[in-house]
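Second attempt. The first submission of D-amino acid dehydrogenase had a stray character pasted in from the spreadsheet, which I only caught after the job came back as garbage. Lesson logged: always re-copy from the clean sequence file. Corrected sequence (413 aa) follows.
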Amino acid sequence: MRIIVLGGGVVGVTTAYQLQKDGHEVVLLEKNAVVADETSWGNAGMVAPGHSFVWSSPRAPMILMRSLVLKNQALRFKLSADPRLYSWSWLFLMECTAEKARRNTLLKHRLAAYSQSVLHEVIGEEDIAYDRNDRGILYFHRDPQALETGIANMRLLESDGQVIKVLDRDAVLKLEPALAGVGAKIAGAIHCPTDETGDPAKFTRGLAALVAKRGGDLRTGVTVTAIETTGDRVTGIATSAGTVKGDAYVLAMGCSSAGLARTVGLDLPIYPIKGYSLTIPVGNRPLPPTVAAVDEHNLVAISRFGDRLRVTATAEFAGYDKSHKPADFAFMKQVTQELYPEGADYERAEMWAGLRPMTPTNLPFFGRRRLGNLYLNTGHGHIGWTMSHGSARITADLIAGRTPAIPMDGLLA
Ligand SMILES: Cc1cc2nc3c(=O)[nH]c(=O)nc-3n(C[C@H](O)[C@H](O)[C@H](O)COP(=O)(O)OP(=O)(O)OC[C@H]3O[C@@H](n4cnc5c(N)ncnc54)[C@H](O)[C@@H]3O)c2cc1C
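This time the job returned cleanly.
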């Protein structure tokens, strides 16, 4: 078939790759001059099934309420005139029961773990340099009580096959000597040795180059403007460079998917949740981190991509606004500098903000709705790099009429 993929983030590009592997002719449409230039550019790069916990948990309503009154929280909920914020928030709150949080977390973990296995297949077959680090991820706590709660929560993922190791302070410092200066402040950690990190934009661009080399038609600088339909079929995609026609179409435009889907009567509750990141050269600093870490107390994530650190934080409801100012990064920079004072050249930090395409369940949308040849692969939220490879393979399976390798109950709408 000739298949048109809409969107060139990590989800669109991995989908194009899997479809091409199946023997299809692929055309990918991306509005930016290069692929992976939106949310897939500046994320923390964590391939982290160990981080599969959904945000729609029983604690979420209180955290949202608190953020209305207390400023500078890791989560910033702001009232706005956008009615979609409220319809989305209502659906999100409906997912916040203990039972649904448990169910959604396990579904997400299933997809994330499968996705990591597909990533491993891909990197086993392809030569893509993306600053991979496979020393696991250290989820560390500063407070003994919080550590105990974190361990208890992790047992849920462990019951689904996640490997976890509980480390006391000495073991943390043995694994990560770069934290020695703050050792006294660390109660302990959960180490997920099979979690990993790597630069998602480097990976996506490397993979896109392979798809193009093998005959894929990657059209960058082309904006999708409309989906053309007749009856229950898509007949073409209107773009800034004319209409593009195929046999099947995949919607993978991240936060922009919802708006386009609405124009053909599909309601996809995907709302942007903004996050911030810093990319900091290690320079000649002697003690950069060697293992990716999440400071669970401050909700700051730190990854090492070769000669750079990537630091991310904050979940903010700011509509589609991606602007940022130095003050937005002050806290995450201060936390990172406290943890790794000799870890990077902090004066040369590059600032970035991006939008997580969040769904109320925190699970992406797959499969078809109403339009027989339009497939969804979108809404990957806060761990879309982690879930992209499996999601791409699942989409290729659904298009081929194959049964995906993991059970899809609860994942297909
Ligand atoms: C601060 C932060 C930290 C994160 N950390 C992690 C992490 O550590 N691990 C992890 O797994 N995930 C992480 N994520 C989430 C992850 O980045 C996203 O889930 C993922 O990048 C989503 O990929 P995507 O391809 O769906 O969206 P995008 O990367 O946004 O791609 C969508 C593409 O569609 C294109 N597009 C949109 N509209 C049009 C149009 N009209 N015409 C043509 N093209 C269009 C866009 O230009 C874009 O390239 C993080 C996110 C943030 C913000």
